[in-house]
Amino acid sequence: MVWRKREEESELNQDIISMIGRCNIPILVLDERWHELFPEYKKTQKIKELEKNLNRLIKYQGKINDDKKEMKKLKHRLMEEIISNMGESTGEAGLLKQKKQEKSQRLIKEINVKLAQSEDEENLLPYKIKKANEELLIESLKIWYQELDSNREEIKALTEWIADAREKLKVNILKKQDMEMENNSIYSYMHSLLGAGVMQALDEDLDR
Question: Under a CB-based contact definition with an 8 Å cutoff, are residues 136 and 128 in contact?
Answer without folding.
Answer: no
